[in-house]
Write a structure and sequence with these properties.
The complex is a heterodimer. Chain A has 6 helices and 5 strands, in the order ββαβββααααα. By secondary structure, chain A is of the alpha+beta class. Chain A has 2 domains: 2-78, Ubiquitin-like (UB roll) (Roll); 87-178, [2Fe-2S]-binding domain (DNA polymerase, domain 1, Orthogonal Bundle). In chain A, strands 2-1-5-3-4 form a 5-stranded mixed beta sheet, with helices on both faces. In chain A, α2 packs across α5 (141-167) and α5 packs antiparallel against α6 (171-178). The longest helix of chain A has 27 residues, at 141-167. Helix content of chain B is 27%, strand content 25%. In chain B, a hairpin with a 2-residue loop joins β28 (676-677) and β29. The longest helix of chain B has 28 residues, at 523-550. The two termini of chain B are 28 Å apart. Classes of the chains: A alpha+beta, B alpha+beta. The interface between A and B is large, with 56 and 56 residues.
């Protein structure tokens, strides 16, 4: 049985006509052409298919699209804003946190959910948050480093923004918070 | 080591494919969707050992939405295998199945669901045969032969090599020790499940996109298996989502997709499920090992005798090589003047084992390093000192005729000992905490190809066009290790441009020169050297043209910062793009090849082809553990690895390889096991097949040691496999330091630690491990003179060097 559904994916409303038992993972990849989200096990065990639904990490291989109507779905394709990468993406690329890259989309989304909730997590909090996303290449080390670097950069950017709001974007205030004064 | 004279090499640059990987843009095989594409499924045997008595596909063919159904009768009736000496596989079995998971039929249909439903409509009847599930079973039942070939009933391969008189060496020893170890099998568990898309075009030509580590070998085998001219087949390796050796054979799903596409007249995709990946396997062999070594009082080894019994599973795969590898590299780390090796690989009705990271060498390395620790204790020596004193010398040969070029092992040991605080900790940590050390060596590329030939192991074409753009074409396959990036760095360095100016086109048998594949840690060295040669040839043409224009000689020129200029007068020069225009005007099209084949150094004896390598990497590892004496849980708390990488072309990527190796080693030593019950995999899921998560992986400290090896590109050696080797025995040795229990088999699971502690309480030897050895008579050894200590050949013949 097929059904008509409207899904909000990466801020766009998309109409889908798909079999009701198809998983969110399958609909994203096969019906919406968003192949950045990966199959790893189809059993909710590896985290490769992680997406965000209303900001919460969800295993898309276990989710039904019909339950996601009216909710905000974010996939790896929705992390960057235009050509500007999310700081997590930037840090993952710079530090070599993506080797084969297959776990990377899921890892990025779990990490983003963490940073939304806990902007400056401890290393143990990062480990905890990513414990459901398996990676066989990196030994997690560079992934943990990248999440910490992204957190730091987001934190600094937030400081700059706040100080700009206070100081009316005075160059002196900016130099002070960036340590270039 | 100084990186001053380099502009790209030695820098921690992002990989060139990082940006596509972090945005989800990288297209893996399963991400390909072609117009009119059909979906394929395989029907697999539920029995470990059975004759196929009836196979009827008519009901499946009648199902609406089904385009094609095939069995082995729809393929040429011949067997294939990755090694020329082990042609024992069928894509779809015709008469007999040898393991649960053997494919017997395949379907292509409008969607995956219909294809799966169709497989359930295929009628198969089996006559069950006794399943042989262990080495002992298989040797005890020669009448129930799994294959009709080999070195005896159910014996795939038996080898016996002797380099000098070990019995005499034992007589000269102050201490002779024997030990028995078992290394449990485990699997690669790549995050990406294997997938392939085949398209048999209307022109009668076939294209296969596949998540393979070796498009060249798949290309060769497809010609044979499908009985098609190889010239009409194109194999493209898509970016591989993790390999570790698990994507190095030609597989049933690849072959079935090709034939189904031909019959259905459309592209066909087959993507394996996670359970199918567990059965496809080709992972770490379970190996039982016995070893006997003679030691002098100072720990010097007088001779070593090593035996290994490999549980091969149902097919040959790389097994002959794996068997030799369990005996090949023992001699590379420490001085072993006399050496004897006997090995046997036995067929069983389980998924075939093959190469996994470290191919055949982590098992004996585990045995050797634990054995050395035990000997050190008996001799009253510090395990670090004992190892440190007896390391192989640079530019010498080993007993089994391997040539060691540079070695940084002494420095590796010193660095991990210092960084870990070994001397303050060993034997001094509180009860339940321990520290252990181990060392290892690994090949930088196999000296010989899988099939005998005189052609390059790696080829590169560097092409420059008048825009100033440079493309690198190479058959190498990026499996996440960064081989595409290495090609870009190397070419950028030689041409004096930026990696970003270069596009790398890899792994396409139509467009790229052959590279044998991503295995045996060969790509950086071999493709790197071929790329240097190609880029240097291109640079020579560019320099010739620029020299003419500037009225200097080519030797006066330098390429750097996207310019070609006079060395002593940097102002005089031209931009790189202009230099290319000058060169193209002088020479015509600029597309220049480079070739690499390893030096011919194989020992002149049968079996001498497994083990030689242009150079060896060396690693030392210290692990600190916490052992819970109640539960037996072993928790590694910190790991230090120092790795002699020759030169780190990109330290960031080398660290990544070391960290990944450590992680994988910890999984193997503490939790991972590929085990079976009644022919069926016990735990074919990512939840139950335990592998370390971010929570179980400890803090890792990587130290890179550089030795600038003359064989490597800019001096580089391998980094992808070697650092895994010492981690496993270092954990075992640390567990002993912590609680005084010797667990002589992997994984060191809590139950084994608890059993060891119980034995200790009872006053019995606190050792948990194999108690007996299978009955098997090894063939009479081939007696070969030991080459130990001989100087490396001054000039080894290296084809295509000029």
């Amino acid at each position: 049985m097929k059904a008509q559904m409207t899904l909000t994916v990466n801020g766009e409303e998309r109409d889908v006509f798909a079999a009701v038992h198809k998983t969110l993972l399958e609909v994203l990849r096969e019906d919406l052409g968003l192949t950045g989200t990966k199959h790893g096990c189809e059993l909710g065990e590896c985290g490769a298919c992680t997406v965000l639904v209303d900001g919460e990490p969800v295993l898309s291989c276990l989710a039904l699209p019909v339950e996601c109507q009216g909710r905000e779905i974010t996939t790896v394709e929705g992390l960057a804003q235009g050509e500007r990468l999310h700081p997590l993406q930037q840090a993952f690329a710079e530090l070599g946190a993506a080797q084969c890259g297959y776990c990377t989309p899921g890892m990025l989304l779990s990490a983003r959910a963490l940073l939304e909730a806990t902007p400056m997590p401890t290393r143990d909090e990062v480990r905890q948050a990513l414990a459901g996303n398996l990676c066989r290449c990196t030994g997690y080390t560079k992934i943990l480093d990248a999440v910490e670097l992204a957190a730091l950069r987001l934190h600094r950017a937030g400081q700059i923004e706040r100080s700009q709001a206070r100081a009316g974007d005075s160059p002196g205030a900016r130099a002070m918070v960036t340590g270039r004064a | 080591m100084s990186t001053k004279r380099f502009s790209v090499i030695g820098k921690g640059l992002p990989k060139i494919d990082s940006w596509s990987k972090v945005t989800g843009a990288t297209q893996y095989a399963d991400d390909l969707f072609l117009p009119r594409m059909a979906y394929g499924k395989l029907l697999r045997s539920p029995h470990p050992h059975a004759l196929i008595t009836r196979l009827d596909t008519s009901r499946a063919k009648a199902l609406p939405g089904v385009f094609a159904v095939i069995t082995g009768h729809d393929l040429p009736r011949l067997k294939f295998g990755i090694m020329p000496v082990s042609q024992d596989e069928e894509a779809l079995c015709v008469e007999k199945v040898r393991m649960v998971g053997d494919a017997v039929a395949a379907v292509a249909a409008v969607d995956e669901e219909t294809a799966e439903r169709a497989t359930l409509l295929i009628d198969v009847e089996y006559e069950l045969l006794p399943p042989l599930m262990s080495i002992e079973d298989s040797l005890a039942h020669p009448e129930a032969r799994i294959h009709e070939y080999g070195d005896g009933p159910n014996v795939h391969k038996a080898v016996s090599l002797q380099f000098g008189d070990v019995e005499e060496a034992f007589r000269q020893a102050d201490l002779v020790r024997e030990d028995v170890f078992f290394f449990e099998g485990n699997t690669h568990l790549p995050m990406e499940e294997h997938a392939a898309v085949a398209h048999f075009g209307p022109d009668g030509k076939l294209t296969l996109w596949s998540s393979t580590q070796t498009p060249h070998y798949v290309h060769r085998l497809l010609g044979k298996i499908l009985d098609l001219p190889q010239a009409h087949i194109r194999v493209i390796a898509t970016p591989v989502g993790g390999g570790f050796g698990g994507k190095l054979d030609a597989f049933a799903h690849e072959i079935a997709a090709c034939r189904l596409s031909q019959l259905a007249g459309r592209p066909v995709k087959i993507a394996l499920t996670r359970e199918e990946v567990f059965y496809t396997h080709r992972g770490r062999h379970p190996v039982l090992m016995w070893m006997k070594t003679g030691f002098k009082k100072d720990g010097a080894i007088t001779g070593m005798h090593f035996r290994s019994w490999l549980d091969g599973g149902a097919y040959g795969s790389y097994g002959v090589a794996s068997t030799f590898y369990t005996g090949a590299l023992q001699t590379v780390t420490y001085k072993i003047p006399v050496y004897k090796f006997e090995g046997v690989r036995v067929f069983t009705n389980k998924p075939p084992c093959g190469p996994k990271r470290g191919h055949g060498t982590p098992q004996p390395r585990f045995a050797v390093e634990c054995h050395l620790d035990k000997a050190a204790e008996q001799l009253g020596l510090d395990p670090v000192e004992m190892r440190r004193r007896h390391l192989t010398e640079p530019f010498t040969k080993t007993a089994n005729h391997l040539t060691v070029t540079t070695t940084g092992l002494a420095e590796c040991i010193d660095r991990v000992v210092e960084a870990s605080g070994w001397h303050e900790k060993r034997g001094k940590l509180p009860r339940g905490k321990g520290i252990g050390i181990a060392c290892s060596a690994y090949m930088t590329g196999a000296g010989l190809a899988i099939y005998w030939n005189d052609m390059p192991h790696s080829g590169v074409v560097v092409r420059a066009d008048r825009s100033g753009g440079v493309s690198v074409l190479c058959g190498a396959t990026d499996i996440g290790q960064g081989s595409d990036s290495i090609l870009a760095y190397v070419v950028a360095e030689v041409l004096g441009i930026e990696p970003k100016d270069i596009r790398v086109h890899p792994a396409d048998t139509d467009l790229t020169p052959v590279d044998l594949g991503s295995y045996s840690s060969r790509v950086t060295l071999m493709a790197g050297n071929a790329a240097i040669q190609a880029a240097q040839r291109l640079r020579a043409r560019i320099f010739e043209a620029v020299a003419k224009k500037l009225e200097v000689t080519p030797g006066d020129l330098e390429a750097r910062d996207r310019r070609v200029f006079v060395k002593d007068d940097a102002e005089r020069g031209v931009a790189f793009a202009e230099a290319v225009v000058l060169a193209e005007s002088m020479h015509g099209v600029l597309a220049v090849p480079g070739s690499y084949a390893p030096p011919k150094r194989a020992g002149k004896y049968k079996g001498g082809g497994v083990g030689p390598s242009p150079c060896y990497s060396f690693s030392a590892c210290v692990v600190e553990v916490d052992v819970d004496e109640e539960t037996g849980q072993v928790r590694p708390t910190e790991v230090w690895v120092a790795h002699d990488v020759g030169r780190a072309l990109n330290p960031l990527l080398v660290e990544g390889q070391v960290e990944g190796s450590i992680y994988m080693g910890l999984g193997e030593v503490l939790m991972e096991e590929q085990v079976f019950r009644k022919g069926v995999h016990k735990i074919p899921s990512m939840l139950e097949y335990k592998s370390p998560t971010a929570l179980e992986t400890p803090e890792i400290h990587t130290i890179l040691v550089e030795t600038d090896d003359p064989e490597g590109p800019f001096g580089a050696k391998e980094a992808g496999q070697g650092p895994l080797l010492p981690v496993i025995p270092a954990v075992a040795n640390a567990v002993y330091d912590a609680v005084g229990v010797r667990v002589d088999e992997t994984p060191i699971s809590p139950d084994k630690v608890v059993r060891g502690l119980e034995l200790k309480r009872q006053g019995k030897p606190a050792r948990v491990g194999p108690e007996k050895l299978p009955l098997f008579t090894f063939p009479a050894p081939r007696a070969i003179d030991s080459a130990f200590g001989l100087p490396a050949d001054a000039i080894a013949e290296r084809p295509f060097a000029s």
